[in-house]
Every structure is written in structure tokens, then in C-alpha cells.
Design brief:
alpha+beta, 4-stranded antiparallel sheet
Length: about 130
């Protein structure tokens, strides 16, 4: 007869969270032995926590990869001025700046049509934090 998996209860979720927080800063190679020491009778619990740790590692690496180009772009924004291009737009002047980024007045300059727009450039990670 197959082993019945443990149901997700508030107590079980609390145990998963506590183990996750306790070992997330350990080196990946050390996590499994640490987890097995504290949850030796519950292989499902170890698997749940390992799954969350894997996803946290993957997500962290992805965020770092996505933020590196954005960081470089924001450094370049500091030097952005009249005549510079952002996509099909030519910057005319800075309209404003703050914690949410910088807003430039720009004009479409690719020969498709003439259009004046405001271009907002956000700091790295702003969209992921819901600041857009």
C-alpha cells in the first residue's frame, strides 16, 4: 500500500517555514544533511523545504541576472541628455526625477511618424516591486 503523504495544515506549513528560514543561508551542499537531522522521520517535509530552497535559489539568480542590465541602464540614465536616444525616441529634456525614476520629454525620431512623448525610466527591480 502506498504511503499517504502528510496533509498541509497550518502547523505543517509553520514547520516548513521554520526549517526553510533556518537553513536558507547554508551552502546548498550542507542543506540536505541539516534538514535530515531535524526532520529525519519526515521525508516529505525535507522534500518540501528542499523544493522551496531550490526555487528561492533559482529566483534569486534570475533576479540578479535581470537587474544587472537594468542597473547599467540606470547608470547610463544619469548621463542621458538632449539628443540621446531611447529606442525610437530622441530625448529633448528631463521633465522630472525622484525615487520612482526619471521622466524625459522625447520625440519619436525614427521616421515612422512625429510624436512627442514622456519616457519614464525606472530604477532596477521597480517593476517587480510594483512601482511601475
Amino acid at each position: 500500500m502506498p504511503k499517504k503523504s502528510n496533509p498541509m495544515t497550518p502547523q505543517r506549513w509553520k514547520a516548513i517555514e521554520e526549517l526553510f528560514e533556518a537553513c536558507r543561508d547554508l551552502a546548498p551542499a550542507a542543506r540536505r544533511s541539516w534538514l535530515e537531522e531535524f526532520a529525519r522521520d519526515d521525508a516529505d517535509l525535507v522534500a518540501e523545504v528542499e523544493s522551496l530552497l531550490f526555487e528561492a535559489d533559482r529566483t534569486g539568480r534570475l533576479e540578479a541576472m535581470l537587474e544587472a542590465p537594468a542597473r547599467a541602464a540606470m547608470e547610463a540614465v544619469g548621463a542621458l541628455g538632449p539628443g540621446d536616444r531611447v529606442g525610437p525616441y530622441r530625448v529633448e529634456r528631463l521633465l522630472g526625477e525622484g525615487g520612482m525614476g526619471k521622466v524625459f520629454l522625447a520625440r519619436r525620431d525614427d521616421g515612422t511618424f512625429d510624436q512627442e512623448v514622456a519616457v519614464k525610466l525606472l530604477p532596477p527591480g521597480a517593476a517587480a516591486r510594483g512601482l511601475d
